[in-house]
Design a protein that fits this description.
Number of strands: 17
Strand content: 15-25%
Largest sheet: 7 strands, parallel
CATH class of the largest domain: Alpha Beta
Number of domains: 2
CATH architecture of the largest domain: 3-Layer(aba) Sandwich
Distance between the termini: 37 Å
Structural class: alpha/beta
Radius of gyration: 22 Å
CATH superfamily of the largest domain: CofD-like domains
Length: 448
């Protein structure tokens, strides 16, 4: 296997990484200075070079930068948390990935193997059932490395009660992603999804949410809790909260009304569902998780959606730093459009309306592909959804998208009509595989 060159003034990190990689056959070489590193890059066989910013806080890459670029050797920068602007500047200099300290053993190995084995790095943005469905299918694809950047604005149901009682970030969406990417036994995953039907204080709580709450207390943060649960479930990829800021999702409507809270926006019980949302933001302004920004910048492909347009997808894009990372990222950006409209959020929305909002919140048209479903939907399903004020999201005229986006538009059989109209996880994942030119999955995921 390729040698991993570590540039760090102290030997501790090299020793830890050597131990972590002991079972995979990767060899590790440690040097103290950039000058020593340059000699190895010139004369040695190096698969990747890890540079700790302690080498030189002003210019830790030094001579390494030009030599690594000349020889096509990826640079992994080990750094303290940085702003989105600083992270973007490192990627613009050619860094393959920034790993944020404190480093976590399993994640470090996953990133190194993704780089050394040239796995396709896929980042999925969103939340709710749509993100869960996509991750469940992608997990079955070979030779990819998945990072999910998860919406953290949920304030309804079990998550809302936990947020209110403990003052922590809502655990529901990250729990779903953990289960989707888990390689643990099926019973363990079912246990995490278990919802109490009775019991004072427990009724309607989800066990996985309670476990994440306890882990947050033990580790000191929701990000730490997610990381610990990822270890327990041995997830096939990373689950990254979009932000560590506890905030309230807020929307203004065409009528001038202001709605506060994701649940109030998502479930328009006492307002006109056709009163469109004109603006969405967080109070206070949510700051992006540096690890989420780093993952987006290091990605080969970023998927946006499927999921509730405003309360899952745009809520994530409205986090400060996420849109900036998408604009700077060289990844291929794929928007997966929803199948059905949603009262209070997207009543009467066409595909063009969805795409227009995505671009507005990113701040630039960076989309490369828009994926639509052309799966037939039964008349019974049409009637059932019509009673709830919902209809299929349509693209009546493909030319309507041309003034909005440069993206190519493809329609495929990626949906399913079984009780609910939704995306089929395996069909969707295999369509993503086709777009990326990687093998599709021969084995269906455990559930759809």
């Amino acid at each position: 296997m390729p040698r991993i060159l570590i540039v760090d003034p102290e030997p501790r990190l090299a020793g830890e990484i050597t131990a972590l990689l002991a079972y995979s056959g990767d060899s590790v070489q440690w040097v103290k200075t950039g000058k020593e590193a340059r000699e190895h890059l010139v004369f040695g066989v190096t698969g990747a070079v890890l540079v700790d910013t302690r080498v030189d806080s002003d210019n830790p890459l030094g001579e390494i930068e030009a030599e690594a670029r000349r020889n096509g050797i990826p640079i992994v920068l080990l750094t303290d948390p940085l702003s989105s602007t600083d992270l973007i500047s490192w990627y613009q200099r050619g860094v393959a990935v920034c790993l944020i300290k404190p480093l976590h053993g399993r994640e470090l190995v996953l990133w190194l193997h993704a780089i050394l084995k040239r796995r396709t790095r896929v980042v999925c943005l969103g939340g709710g059932t749509g993100l869960y469905t996509l991750l469940l299918g992608l997990k079955a694809l070979p030779n990819i490395y998945i990072s999910s950047v998860v919406n953290m604005s949920d304030d309804g149901g079990s998550s809302g009660r936990i947020r209110e009682s403990f003052g922590i970030l809502p655990p529901g969406d990250v729990r779903r992603c953990l289960v989707a990417l888990s390689t643990a036994p099926t019973l363990m995953n079912e246990l995490l999804q278990y919802r109490f039907a009775a019991g004072e204080g427990l009724r309607d709580h989800n066990l996985g949410n309670l476990l994440l709450t306890a882990m947050t207390a033990l580790t000191g943060s929701m990000a730490g809790a997610v990381r610990a649960m990822s270890d327990i479930l041995h997830t096939q990829g990373l689950v990254l909260p979009s932000t560590g800021t506890l905030c309230t999702l807020t929307a203004s409507l065409q009528s001038g009304a202001i709605i506060r809270g994701e649940h109030a926006i998502d479930v328009p019980e006492s307002r006109d569902p056709n009163d469109r949302i004109t603006r969405l933001w967080h109070e206070p302004q949510a700051q992006a998780n540096p690890e989420a920004v780093a993952a987006i910048l290091a990605a080969d492909v970023v998927t946006i959606g499927p999921g509730d347009l405003f309360t899952s997808i745009l809520a994530t894009l409205a986090v400060s730093g996420i849109a900036e990372a998408l604009r700077a990222s060289r990844a291929r950006k794929i928007y997966i459009c929803n199948l059905m409209t949603k009262p209070g959020e997207t009543s009467g929305f066409s595909v063009a309306d969805h795409v227009r909002e995505i671009i507005r919140y990113i701040g630039q048209d960076v989309l490369d592909t828009v994926v639509l479903s052309d799966t037939p939907v039964s008349e019974d399903a049409h009637r059932l959804y019509a009673k709830k004020g919902q209809e299929l999201v349509r693209l009546e005229d493909p030319s309507a998208l041309k003034p909005i986006t440069r993206a190519s538009v493809i329609s495929r059989d990626i949906g399913m009509d079984q009780e609910l109209v939704r995306h089929h996880s395996l069909k969707l994942a295999n369509e993503i595989a086709l777009l990326l030119g990687i093998p599709a999955s021969p084995v269906p995921p455990c559930r759809t």
